[in-house]
Amino acid sequence: MSVPTSSRTDRAGRTNVQKAALVVGVIFLLIGVLGFIPGITTNYDTMSFASHHSEAMLLGIFQVSILHNIVHLLFGVAGLVLARSVSGARSYLVVGGIIYAVLFIYGLLVPQDSAANFVPLNLADDILHLVLAIGMVGLGVALTRGRAGADA
């Protein structure tokens, strides 16, 4: 009988779903930090706390604000904390993916120049949110498939 992929652990005792949540968390932390670095974030001097008026662009592509960067940092910390257990890692990936699906829909429905676009979001953000939604939910489900009561 083979051991399910999600049950395999590395030397530190982490399952694949925990490692995935850890990697995603680290990436979000990195993105949050990069959003505050002039040069990596273009139009840095136009960055506002929140709203579509922030014209700061991470990597010259993704519209960001101070709030947006703080959310990335907090999301990254959540990934690191929740990666400590299998159920936490799965929840982080699946619920986080659902949150990004909601953000994708929000970005499609709310006009970019609207006051309701407080995050702020542009088309590149919308596409990235869709990719994150699919990827995170996919990882959370695939890496815990066949595992009853994901705990540990």
Helix content: 40-55%
Describe the strand arrangement of the main beta sheet, using strand numbers.
Answer: 1-2-3
The string of secondary-structure elements, in order, is: HEEEHHH
Structural class: mainly alpha
The strand count comes to: 3
**What is the number of helices?**
4
Strand coverage percent? under 5%
Largest sheet, if any? 3 strands, antiparallel
What distance separates the N and C termini? Answer: 22 Å
Computed Rg: 17 Å
Average pLDDT rating: 86
Basic shape: globular
How many individual domains?
1
Low-confidence region ranges: 1-7
Keywords: Membrane, Transmembrane, Transmembrane helix
Protein name: DUF4383 domain-containing protein
Transmembrane segments: 20-40, 60-82, 89-107, 127-144
How would you characterize this protein structure?
- Residues 1-7 have low confidence and may be disordered.
- A hairpin with a 3-residue loop joins strand 2 and strand 3.
- A three-stranded antiparallel β-sheet has the order 1-2-3.
- With 152 residues, the protein is mainly alpha-helical.
- Helix 1 runs antiparallel to helix 2 and helix 3 packs antiparallel against helix 4.
- It is globular.
- It has one domain.
- The protein has helices spanning 16-34, 66-82, 86-109, 123-142, and strands at residues 41-42, 57-58, 62-63.
What topology emerges from the helices and strands here?
Layout: H1 16-34, E1 41-42, E2 57-58, E3 62-63, H2 66-82, H3 86-109, H4 123-142
Helix pairs in contact: 1-2, 1-3, 2-3, 3-4
Transmembrane segments: 20-40, 60-82, 89-107, 127-144
Organism: Desertihabitans brevis
Protein name: DUF4383 domain-containing protein
